Amino acid sequence: MKRFVSFLLTLVLAISLATPAFAAEDSLVQPRFKHIISFGTSITYGDWGIATCSSSVIIDSGYKVTLVLTLQRSSGNDSWEDVETWSAAGNAGATISERRALYSQYSYRVKSTATVYDLDGNWIESESQIDY
């Protein structure tokens, strides 16, 4: 019986290794960004109600980027109100980091949008991120 089970397992292994794996031609996995190399957004809560709101984007050379970071608050309902907005721009990327005092009766989040343009100012792509 042990010989039969060993033979059967060996046969299954040999067949599975001999069967080629094919990828679908119309793959559902596609690159998310065209010219954004990395993009991150965060809100970090510190002592005494101080939060650091940050966003950073790095893009391919030969393009320009505008980065807009907005601090938003909500008082419990599902609507968000803009508290403050910062922006930065650059050719290789852009970074924003700001500290603000927050009030405990609100929930906060940051929303960041990176917009990439070619050197002539034509829109290429926009991506947004939210962090709570």
Please tell me about this protein's structure:
The chain is mainly beta and 132 residues long. 13% of the residues lie in helices and 55% in strands. The protein contains one helix and seven strands, in the order αβββββββ. The strands form two sheets. A four-stranded antiparallel β-sheet has the order 4-3-6-7, with no helix packed on it. Strands 1-2-5 form a three-stranded antiparallel β-sheet, with no helix packed on it.
Reconstruct the topology from this structure.
Blueprint: H1 2-18, E1 36-45, E2 50-59, E3 63-74, E4 81-90, E5 93-101, E6 107-118, E7 123-131
Antiparallel strand pairs: 1-2, 2-5, 3-4, 3-6, 6-7
Overall radius of gyration: 24 Å
Q: Tally the helices: what do you get?
A: 1
SSE ordering: HEEEEEEE
- Strand arrangement, major sheet: 4-3-6-7
**Rounded mean pLDDT score:** 83
Distance between the termini: 59 Å
Secondary structure category: mainly beta
Give the biggest sheet. 4 strands, antiparallel
Contiguous low-pLDDT stretches (5 residues minimum) are 4-27
The gross shape turns out to be elongated
Total beta-strand segments: 7
Percentage of residues assigned to helices? 10-25%
Strand content: over 45%
Write a brief caption for the model.
The chain is mostly beta strands. It is 13% helix and 55% strand. The chain has 1 helix and 7 strands.
Tags for this model:
single chain, mainly beta, 132 residues, four-stranded antiparallel beta sheet, three-stranded antiparallel beta sheet, 7 strands
